[in-house]
Amino acid sequence: MQEIEEEEELYEHHRIAVDKGQNLLRIDKYLMTKLQNATRVKIQEGIDAGNVKVNDTVVKASYKVKPFDVITVSLSAPPRDTEIIPQNIPLDIIYEDDDLLVVNKPAGMVVHPAHGNWDGTLVNALVYHFQNLPTHRNGEIRPGLVHRIDKDTSGLLVIAKTDQAMTHLAKQFFDHSIERTYNALVWGEPKEEEGTVTGNIGRSLKDRKIMAVFPDGSQGKEAVTHYKVIKKLRYVSLVHDETYGGDKVLRGTVFSKYEQFVQNCFKLCPRQALHAKSLGFVHPTTGEFLQFDTELPQDIQQVIEKWEGYVNEG
Fold first, then answer.
1. Is 300:273 a contact under the CB 8 Å cutoff?
2. Statement to judge: residues 136 and 39 lie in one domain
3. CATH of the domain at 51
4. What pTM value is reported for the model?
5. I need a surface site. Which of 244, 250, 252, 255 has the fewest CB within 10 A?
6. Active site residue: 150, 152, 163, 207, which one?
7. Does 87 fall in a domain?
8. What's the DSSP call for residue 213?
9. Secondary structure class of 224 (helix, strand, coil)
10. Per-residue model confidence as pLDDT tens digits over 50-84
11. Is 152 annotated as catalytic?
12. Do residues 25 and 169 both lie within one domain?
């Protein structure tokens, strides 16, 4: 008698509804922008194994994703328990009332639990210090989170303490009425003292750990960034608003003394030199406009001081 192989049970891990403005794109490339810590090879293997479906149908890696598709990704192991473990992690709270709080997140702290970072996050700290925080985004377990910033970005975040505050603040972010400024230390000196950068921003297709600009609008979300140069330091500049830093010499001479100086700067600030400096929004209950501002963290300040000294020495 022929033995019938039992079909492996699969558990749904991801369900992605494609945006209405999505351009046609191979599904393996598309999933690279949506799944954290997943390489294109791993995604293609999953597709070949039948673990990826579009509108409940198994597809090939060459399938072109189109608007309103529903993509599911299933794996043989069940999803990790979504329970968040409270942890007594200190929070730098700069404002708090019955509806919300504003925290100054240090660089190196992940905002919410995810693959590779299940504890030690801002959310783990929030559920320890506060009870019954509201969730958002169709009930995802992200207590109090209205927005987030990257692990290596420091600065201000507003946290909702009630459902009403969550809804009100989320709408302000959706409407882009929130006022946010970032300070960043960047390579080079912009030609203009101030200006505007526009383009769609999404996860890079080459390295999904970073964000990239898609001039053709095929990926990401529309973004408008206004910048203003605060200080020019010959090879680097301190500017308002966001950008990515680097971990290698991109401007300047090739002399070993200069290269060593830059490496010393990287040791002082081994991250992207990006800080969410100010945050302004309308209070969800009082209607008052609140504005918060923070000083640059010590690591960025130390690097700026070193560059000032280098430039002054000629």
1. yes
2. no
3. 3.10.290.10
4. 0.68
5. 255
6. 150
7. no
8. E
9. strand
10. 899 999 999 999 999 999 999 999 887 766 656 78
11. no
12. no
232-266: b (≥16 Cβ within 10 Å) or e? bbebbbbbbbbbebeeebeebeeeeeeeebbeebb
Token look-up 């293997």 returns 45
Each residue of 149-194: pLDDT tens digit? 988 899 999 999 999 999 999 999 988 899 999 988 887 777 888 8
State the Cα torsion 295-299-303-304 to the nearest 10°. Answer: 0
Claim to verify: residue 247 and residue 108 sit in the same structural domain: yes
Q: Identify the domain containing residue 236 by its residue range.
A: 93-312
**Domain co-membership, 281 together with 162:** yes
Tell me the DSSP string of 68-97. T-EEEEEESSPPPP-PPPP------EEEE-
Q: Is the Cβ–Cβ distance between 232 and 251 less than 8 Å?
A: no
What is residue 102's three-state secondary structure? strand
Find the CATH number of the domain harbouring 140: 3.30.2350.10
> Measured between alpha carbons, how far is 132 from 98 in angstroms, rounded to an integer?
13
